[in-house]
Amino acid sequence: MFADSACFLAAQGLHRGASMQNNGDPQSIGEASRRLRGDLGDLYAAVTRSKEDVSARLGTFIRERSYASIAIAFGIGYVLGGGLFSRASSRLLAIGARLYGLKLARNLMGDALHVQASRP
After folding, report:
1. Do 38 and 45 meet the contact criterion of CB atoms below 8 Å apart?
2. Secondary structure (H, E, C), 10-45
3. Rounded mean pLDDT of the chain?
4. What local confidence, expressed as pLDDT, does residue 26 receive?
């Protein structure tokens, strides 16, 4: 296997000390590693700036809307903790659906009575 690799590298001109041509841009392994190191440094700087921006925005939101932040944190914790598919959640959803159904029925009945009362 190594013999085949050596033949392949020799055919490509990548044997000892030869540089790889890429669109007319000669690169040795050292040059490529320096370029990669620079690109990774740029990526790290961009991620750091993004993190600081998100952190600042989140801090502003938490200071301005503290109760909403607590409610959001509670909701995320409840869902991640597995509470979404618990008996308590299904009971709360059932109660909420019943209350909404009663409110909807009252509004429909009130509209129907209002329409009937306005007819001569």
Report:
1. no
2. HHHCCCCCCCEEECCEEECHHHHHHHHHHHHHHHHH
3. 80
4. 59
